[in-house]
Design goal:
The complex is a heterodimer. Chain A has 23 helices and 21 strands. Chain A is α+β, with helices and mostly antiparallel strands. Chain B is of the alpha+beta class. Chain B has five helices and nine strands. In chain B, strands 1, 2, 3, 4, 5, 6, 7, 8 and 9 form a nine-stranded antiparallel sheet that branches. Classes of the chains: A alpha+beta, B alpha+beta. Chains A and B meet through helix 3 and strand 14 of A and helix 1, helix 3 and strand 9 of B.
Chain lengths: ~700, ~150
Amino acid sequence: MNLLIPFDRLSEEDRPRAGGKAWALSRLGREGFPVPRGAVVPVEAYRAYVGPTGLRERILLELNRKPFEAMRWEEMWDAALRIRNFFLKTPLPESLRAALLAEIEELFGNRPVAVRSSAPGEDSAGASFAGLHESFLNVRGASAILERIRLVWASLWSDGALLYRQELKLDVSESAMAVVIQELAEGERSGVAFSKSPVEEDVSLVEAVWGLNQGLVDGTVAPDRWVLDRSSGTLLRHIEAERSEAVRLAPEGTRKEPLLPELRNRSPLEDGEVGRVWSLSMEAEKRFGCPQDVEWTFLGGRPFLLQARPVTAGAKGEPGSRAWNLSLRRSFENLKVLRERIEKRLIPALVKEAQDLSGVDLDSLEDEELAKVLEIREEALARWTKVYWDEFIPFAHGARLFGQVFNDRMQPEDPFRFIDLLRPGRMIGTDRNVRLEEAAERLRQDPALRSSMTAFRDGRDEGDAAVFLEKVSSELGKDTDLALSGEETRRRLAGFLLEMAARPSMPKRSGEAREDLEKAFLDRFQGMERNFAEELLDLARASYRLRDEDNIHLGRLERLRNEARDERLRRSGSVPSAGEPARAGANPLPVRPRQMVGSPAGPGLARGRARVVRDRRDLLEFKAGEILVCDSIDPNMTFVVPLCAAIVERRGGMLVHGAIIAREYGLPCVTGVPDATERIRSGDTLTVDGYLGIVVVHDPE
Amino acid sequence: MKENDQEVARAVGALLESQRVGVLGTFGAGSPYCSLVGFSFEPGYGRLYFATTRATRKFANLSETGRVALLVDNRENREEDIHEASAVTAVGPVTELTGTEKDRGAAVHLTRHPSLAGFLESPTTALLALDVERYFLVRRFQEVMVLEVKR
């Protein structure tokens, strides 16, 4: 098997095995364009790796846990992370490894190279995988190159790439990846050029930055931009950037550096050079027969082509769509900016708005005033829901980014081990649980209070119990559902606290293991890299914490809206729905689950009775040792978690709230179980296997 | 039936339609036992048929317990079976057919397995009906759904 084919030996027939990028580069070279020397590791090498090692079937098994179209993007993230870990943990078969090392060594020696993806079907006119697969710059030596090849292979299964292939209806099981190895052109100035603008018919675009064009491609360095007439090459406009930084080679990889003062006021390209770059892109268009998007770099006063692919128009995405999802792939720098904005501006503004809106006595309003209040609250909720999707959810990517870096360095058995490092000392949701636990502890210690509470729960004597409940309610804060007024609700809260007090107090989780893990992780980084690792960890913790807080704050707005809406419904004579009636005693279903599959989101095994929660009002009925089955846990529901034996959630993901809180309490948890709340009934006996992500529904006893 | 229930019922039907042979599970003399059998079914899949000679271990076993399981699957003996194959197990009481019931069953069975004509005619062969109580459908390696058969 030929495991490494130099560009100049590739022919037209090799296109399917070499992938679009390698094929385009070899053709450019043959046509006389200046292209850095390189070679391709064809798809056969990929297949020789994933076949014999069993990796191929493990990937397909992971992706077939549930119908692909039923997976949420968060679940795709998780699956992609698991698959990436398979690649990290699976060595190449020895013969393949030896053969590849020898060929790479012979061709590239110790010269620095770029290692990039070249997937078949990639960079064709119908599909552009731009930015979906990984590439690495400035890699030296055969074994380092081989390691990067494995990561490029793994990126065939990144969440973005999976979604894209699903959208194009490509057969995932046939996916394979070739890899380009190319000598590094350390350009002084670099950029991209579109022979035809993706958005405007008659113009071409040239963009340029000082240094390497990595910063331009990932959006962290703003480029100078020139707009040219497509037919004549006449310069129409030059939009200058605020030049402050450049990406340059580091001892290994690349890094962003401040730009020398004398370069800040100089455009990276002279006018004549803009024309030369434009001509290259037009020439490439002529050779390939369609408009081209090229990457170039100037080296020794001469422009080199690094890549050429057909121009594809970018679509703007709705929340949840692929385009939207791709925008989630924010780089570290972007995430830092987003964090600043969320922590300093958005969250305080959200908290303040909820506070401002809450000081209204709805009962005392005239109908018209009530309608106005409802309208204001509806508008606020809609506005903040949009912020939630546009800014809070993308920021969740910070935890993912950290997970990937952690897994690359630590290669842990459990690809979600990194979550333990993100677990904060306190979260708002767990704070409330601590206060409830304290109340339960008082009940455990005080038999007289306990019997007073029992009497109160059963509708007798008030006395001490009423005072105690009043105190607990005020400690919990008037914003929580537990602090509701009304005789019935207070009796249910009494029952709930007694239930909590009836079982032993929760052991506190030790922080020791976490400190060891943090040290082990940071010790893998030296010098500048260590700063990056520390910063990334800090960012990831903020990202993880926010998954709790944004939900709580948004939940507060939602509650305010609901209060106003319910009041309006009450006045119009229709009573707000109290949720579905209990389904105990319903007819046996013709189809019932025996084993349901989701994702393992909290390790452990538990057996118990199901409590299906469709409405927050169901929560106070919760009995110790039951298994919480719900559509999705929101932070306002987490107070029952200390009573749970396990958690089953329809909504999928390792970083959804249910999974986070389950890990917090060390509970078995399975998320992403399709139809969980429809198929499982309260009272069913369940076994929850949090290692494998399986829920067994036992036959009625 | 709800849409997702119908989907389960359709998947069970499709699997039975796609296969001709299944694995019969019986129990006797303190030990479980498996055999390959050609099977056929009534419309609606409430009753499955298979045939065996009476001197076999499976016949002794099913006569002893009166109950069997029949597994029908679409594996292709490839690595991909782990995630691609699905299987359905029918369980319920089994009876040897006689009289008009046997004539009816034999006609159904021979439509699906014409080559078994001589085998079915032999006086030593028994035609058996499995009246399915429930089907267990296994897909995606681990997902198991139970379909109760209405009587």
